[in-house]
Input
Amino acid sequence: MKEWSKELSYRELKSPDEIRSLHDKIKESVFRQTYHIQPTTGLLNDPNGFIFQNGIYHLFYQWCPWGAVHGLKYWYHTTSKDLIHWKNEGLALKPDTLYDNRGVYSGTALSDGDKINLYYTGNHRDEDWQRTSYTCLATLNPNGTIVKKEKPLFGPAEGFTEHQRDPKIIHNKEDGKYYIILGAQDENARGCAILYSSDYPDRDFKFVNKILVPGFEEFGNMWECPSLEQIDGKDVLIFCPQNIILPKRSYAQHHNGYIIGSMDFEEAVFIPETEFIELDSGFDHYAAQLAANTDRNVIIGWMGNADCTYPVTDEEDWAGCMTLPRELHIKDNKLIQTPVKEIEALRGEELPADIKELPLAAELLITSDGNDFYLSLFKNRHSRGLMISYNSSTKKLGVDRSGLKTRINTNWGESRTRVLDEPLTKLRIFIDHSSIEIFVNDGEAVFSGRIFPTEEEKQFVVSENATCRIFTINPSVTDDFII
Ligand code: FRU
Output
């Protein structure tokens, strides 16, 4: 594995020419995706500032240009008219002030007339590498320029450690106030979310309190990327608790999930109605964010996770991609997730069901009779490939990637399971060169993961009680070098 010194990974990008040849190399990789957002070079992590404005979806992401390393972070900008065809727009926020000298960290967006306000964490570090987090604001003007507000909105709150970040901006229609929620760690190393409020979107934010979430006082040692959303009339708290082993999540350390309940902003209390439920039951999924300024509940997540590595592409000096955009609804007090309907426009030809080799950009539509079921993808004579199996007596669906030749993040466990509410009758699977997303039934669960099948791993086999339709998927992201 490549060793990254602080000097190398925290270098400032002075000119696109410094990474042009890196991009030329990377774009030849067989693992480059064709319909998922991915970094030009280097590492992509959280989606940021996801918003719909004037017919355009803007999505920014955390980006470190140099390679597969969490070094100096920028916001990279992409746009789309249909959530499916994404255009690279180039660098948006750079770590170029005192307050964000070691990274422009994650955040969210709010529409402000014809402008878009971008709220982000300025990750400041001093010479001794001591961190101070600032909550900062920048404005994206209609002509595409971005102007940072000179001073941060506020600095760190008392009573919490250096881990305070990832502002989620909310304009609460009920009381007219603006709220910012941050992820934080209290002085007893417990993860939590903290609340600020103001009468204005761009000034005067005051600390309100730590948000009380009864039953979740000891739930991981840091909450990253917290958000409060209203979905189908319910309040949904979405966040990423870190360093906690959850019974249903094998050895995974960091998670992205939600609790449905009700939020009282004035009291800073969120009353849960459900347990913490993972947003995605697969392997690689984190920091998901909903699009602001639209009635559709569209969410995009990072198909990766902190402390995970992806050796094949890490060696190639790039890492990470986004999930497909998914539409959220609530059914029986649980979120259901379906890929946005626009994705259907990407379907190419339907292939005969008896093809011997899987295409690398494909959609599989599988129907089964609710009995025991299995499907093995990217197998060959010697290996089982990625196994999907369903036990009808326990209603447990499992996905196991230990049968692939290239094994990754084995210390987090190589299989994931979920007990379904309904018998398994439908799977909708999206494959894109180095990723797989498995939508279950009508969206009651989804499993996402990165996979790196070798040249020899191409076959698939599905149990006899199922039928399978296979479509090729046309490309919808271009690998342009735009910085
Ligand atoms: C989550 C996270 C955020 C932070 C960003 C830095 O993956 O750690 O908390 O703002 O990534 O890239």
